[in-house]
Amino acid sequence: MPQLPPAGGDDLGAPDELIPFQDEGDEQDKGAGRGSAHGDLDELKSSLVHESENRRASASGSDSEAERPPPPQPRESFQKPRDYLAEVVRRQQDGGFFKGPPYPGYPFLMIPELGSTYLPNGALSPGGARTYLQMKWPLLDVPAGATLKDSRSPSPAHLSNKVPVVQHAHHMHPLTPLITYSSDHFSPGSPPSHLSPEIDPKTGIPRPPHPSELSPYYPLSPGAVGQIPHALGWLVPHLMSSRFSPHMVSPAAHGLHPSGIPHPTIVSPIVKQEPTQASMSPGGNSKSPGSVKKEEEKKPHIKKPLNAFMLYMKEMRAKVVAECTLKESAAINQILGRRWHSLSREEQAKYYELARKERQLHSQLYPTWSARDNYGKKKKRKREKQPQQQIQDTESSLASKSKKPYVQYLPIEKPCDSPASSHGSMLDSPATPSTALASPAAPAATHSEQAQPLSLTTKPEARAQLSLHSAAFLSSKAASSSSSLSSPSPLLSRPIPFATMTHTALLTSPPSFPAAIPSPQAALAVLQAQPLSLVTKPAD
DNA sequence: CTTCCTTTGAAGACC
DNA sequence: GGTCTTCAAAGGAAG
């Protein structure tokens, strides 16, 4: 079933006409909420109130994004010395624990995995395959020196063997940020699925991704090499020589761009890799069933492109980990799931758009690839039932079905959870596409602006039912708060901007936090977790 | 060492 | 066409 698209969907017009990526909301949300939220708590609270009021007014006063009053000073975010200092102070208070973004004074760069995925030179680290968003915001404000890192640093690939097989070598070309996801081509509001293939607004015909839209993270398949425009064209000769898996080409042969700059798609062969086709069956013809099977197994594993939430997770995980004492991914993911719902539609739209581009690129690079190819590749997961099914019989059998008892990583007063989630998003956080609409993420959104193609989400009763189920599910499963159960409809009908609800809840129930928050940093993290732009708007 | 957990979204399978 | 299943990432926990 098609997933709920992000904000704006059908009303946003042609992609190229869309608001550049660094629209005011993005900029402020990222910068403000995460930058200055580090500062004074009281100030933040007042800012929260202020923001809530702003959002409330905005939600009631306009029907479209375009009608929303433009921010007085869009790019202010972290350019405020106060904010920067607050960040500095906060980091000092963190005593080194804080593993913030790598760029001092630019905490919303969201390059959380430079330590795990990418090394400072932008190269891929063993921890992950892709970091897609690292250049989005840096492109906007960050000094060039901070963005363009030393490209001659050694690739991290050799540091570990934990690298995805094919989509592995996403070393970032230092210049890639300048040609990838540029604001000219990034459309924050594009729906996630129904725009693919992208329609050229001018010609009305599907158009291939512009080079600037192509993520540099995918190695090229032989069939797609020729299709890749010039942005990746320099790789073609090398890739052609490598049959399929560009990462298997000797780094000596292709490790460097003609300019001498390592490229993301090139990884050291030392890295654990699946055998290439070239290396696996020289003979090729006479294959016993066993060898066929063998070859089948040796086929390069092309992973699915990441969806919007996965992209979001990749970006935000490190931040959450830094904010929380939690380390288990399951717990982190719960937090991220909640935060995802608390994102504004604009913010979510960015990820939907990125995901769309990822899929687009993926299909270009691997024209013959199908998600089916990966079916059964993983060990069968033990999950017998989907959440919606579980909802129906959670109480009776949930615990018994799981190998491991259900772990409520995020109790109601979970230290690192965002208040938004615990008070609202929890209601509809279970994995159902409808949640995006039901999500409180877009307080200012209205039906006209946020027309969602997904029919499911347009049915109020369906949403209510789902939410009720979700609440029940959560309730039985996670001892969720009963208040969530009791009032799904207000949330669904949005009489109150969620931000208001959330922030009100936050501000009116601070006593619930200290008991669960282990440290002032965690307390700040709770506030910081708000994806809204709270404090960068100039005080009135 | 392998699988599970946990999240959302996309896509394929299935009815 | 609707529903269900699988897989994407992540890394600690558990088997």
UniProtKB/TrEMBL annotation:
Biological process (GO), any one: canonical Wnt signaling pathway
Protein name (database record): HMG box domain-containing protein
Residue ranges, compositional bias (Basic and acidic residues): 28-56
DNA-binding region(s) in UniProt: 302-370
Source organism per UniProt: Gopherus agassizii (Agassiz's desert tortoise)
Annotated ranges, domain HMG box: 302-370
An annotated GO cellular component: chromatin
GO terms assigned for molecular function: DNA-binding transcription factor activity, RNA polymerase II-specific; RNA polymerase II cis-regulatory region sequence-specific DNA binding
Keywords: Activator, DNA-binding, Nucleus, Repressor, Transcription, Transcription regulation, Wnt signaling pathway
Signal peptide: none
Compositional bias ranges of the Low complexity kind: 429-446
Region ranges (Disordered): 1-81, 180-218, 274-300, 365-400, 412-458
Family recorded in the similarity comment: Belongs to the TCF/LEF family.
Protein localization: Nucleus
PROSITE patterns named among the record's database cross-references: HMG_BOX_2 (PS50118)
Compositionally biased region (Polar residues): 274-289, 447-458
Alphabetized InterPro entries for the sequence: Catenin-bd_sf (IPR027397), CTNNB1-bd_N (IPR013558), HMG_box_dom (IPR009071), HMG_box_dom_sf (IPR036910), TCF/LEF (IPR024940)
Keyword Protein transport: no
Entry annotated with the keyword Repressor: yes
